[in-house]
Amino acid sequence: MKLVVYLYFSMIVLGVQAWPSVKRSFELFPNPAVPHNVHTVSDCMHVASEAGDYIFKKLNPLNSALNREAVLLELEAAGAAGMGVVPGEGAAASGGGGGAGAGAGTAADVQELQPEVCGLYVMGEPDTIVEITMKHYDANCETGALMAFVDGWELNGEYFPGIKDHHRPLEERVYEFCNNYRQWPRVSNKKFFRSSQNAALLQYRIPVRGSFVANVRFHKITQPCNVLVQNTAAMYKMSNFGQARNCTISALFPAVVSLASLRIGGKSVRAQPKVNYDCQLPSDRLEIGGSAGLDAIGMELASAVCGASSDLGPEQAIFCGVSTVRLVSSGRYQNQAAIVLRKADVPDMEIATLICAL
Ligand SMILES: *[C@@H]1O[C@H](CO)[C@@H](O)[C@H](O)[C@H]1NC(C)=O
Question: 118: which residues sit within 8 A by CB, 6+ positions away?
């Protein structure tokens, strides 16, 4: 299915008024007041950073687009019946009228019938992976319901980690499922998933009625590579652990980035007295930049750093919907970097090294 979640985070307008809305889009929804860590999923884009059960229920059929359509058809039929035709013919006319109405369905009608794709966007601490157990789900395939577990996040058709940066192909990262709940317990209703990084997504499209209970847990890992940032100010350590791999840290907000320590590249590169902020490929390097969407492949570069230093480097501001630091490693060297990242604010415009197109 075409998984598209409309989110307006890319609409970063460089004006003061724009900031509150940008902030609001990414407020998290942990609710410590609820006992037993039970959370109700109410927003279509629900960001979760706490372990526990996440419950979604769609009961009221009056809210569904299909039902509104049925009500409209009934009203139309009633209208046709009231046109003063003889009762016997009236029923036929109303049936015909309804049919024509449905047949001549405009693009707008179709749009309305297109059910919304929503998601439980899970984000853990940088050194964790996400585990989602479907304790229960009632997403009937026959009514067009569909659920999907995504190893990463998806927004507007773009993925984090980027399609090329992940060790699994996209087909393996997206697992779609639905069921016919009436067959339970003949058909098992449990599912279990694990992500490869601290970000995972449970998508659902439930047009008529349905429900699910998803249990979210986090597990520590020792060699995190791709990390989605939730803190608005923190230090992050990146390392390739000697491997040929590219690791990305992305923040879903405009960010100020500085380097706390650095050790990237071969001996000759590290022996240089100054950190090089313009290292050319194919050398190992730390790319700093940003993009409007989630995939780091399309990111614009502000700097590409290599060398060695343990002094705090200068701050630079990335004014993009997504700010990204990406460690590109050939596997020939032990690369590591510690970066300090914080949310950019209007005064940081002065140290901007990249401003993404709107
Ligand atoms: C890492 O990224 C570089 C440049 O973007 C690319 O040439 C290389 O193939 C990537 N390596 C891996 C292991 O994906």
Answer: 5, 43, 44, 45, 46, 203, 204, 205
